[in-house]
Amino acid sequence: MTDERYLKRTILKETVASRYLPEGSRSLRIFLPPGYNELLSYPVVYCQDGEDFFNFGRVATTATKLILDEGLEPFIIVGVDVDKKVRTEEYAPDGSRHEAYLRFFAEELLPYIESKYPVRRDPEHRLLAGDSLGGTVSLHLAISYPELFTRVMSLSGAFYASSQSIVGNCYDLSWLSIYMIVGLQEDAYETDRGVYDFIALNRNTRALLEHKDAVIFYEEKDGKHQWGFWQQEIPQALRYFIEVE
């Protein structure tokens, strides 16, 4: 039976205007932690695929449990929605909307959140989180804006050749802290770009990141390329980045 305390959550829906995105705006959902107080300041987790993170990843319930039961420092979650029809174009580094999305995220979304909510503005208190291509775009956001983002949570990142090439061309990634997990049943997953071995993609990317001196947590475990696997992994990933009070 679910504890009632976990269900008393504050989740707001917002829309942020954009000069860069063709639609002119983007929908957000924002989780405010238990005991939220505008006079305090909070770490913030930015989730790609915002709707999925909240609905399938149950990230708000997980965050509430971690804060109430395990004493994790309260944090705010910003879920950034995406239109699945253009998701690959936005999230993949060779996608037609990728650069526009990165600029929207760094130059419009971030200032919007920081003007409206008491989130901390130093990179070590901002976490980018994503599944599959959401993990990919999170890494590329950090690489493109290292002064803004230094922490990435990647759940079965879709690190195709274009992504590996970008990482390989980086000079020094010692400032980057990345949490990577991948499922052992992801060795032949069919995507909109073909069938890929996600274990190999993640192993190769890990090796490239290690070569550039990134700080890496890496784990392979039983799991498929789906939210049933990722949902179970979110608590550990959040514990890795969010400190106990």
Characterization of the model:
The protein has 245 residues and is α/β, with parallel strands linked by helices. It has one domain (4-241): Rossmann fold (3-Layer(aba) Sandwich). Helix content is 39%, strand content 23%. It has 9 helices and 10 strands. It has helices spanning 4-7, 50-55, 59-70, 87-91, 98-116, 133-144, 161-169, 198-211, 227-241; strands at residues 10-17, 25-32, 44-47, 76-80, 126-131, 151-155, 177-183, 189-191, 194-196, 215-221. The strands form 2 sheets. It has an 8-stranded mixed beta sheet with strand order 1-2-4-3-5-6-7-10, sandwiched between helices. A two-stranded antiparallel ribbon has the order 8-9. Helix 6 (133-144) links the parallel strand 5 (126-131) and strand 6 (151-155). Helix 3 runs parallel beside helix 9 (227-241), helix 5 (98-116) packs across helix 6 (133-144) and helix 7 runs parallel beside helix 8 (198-211). The longest helix is centred in the middle third of the chain and has 19 residues, at 98-116. The two termini are 27 Å apart. The mean pLDDT is 95.
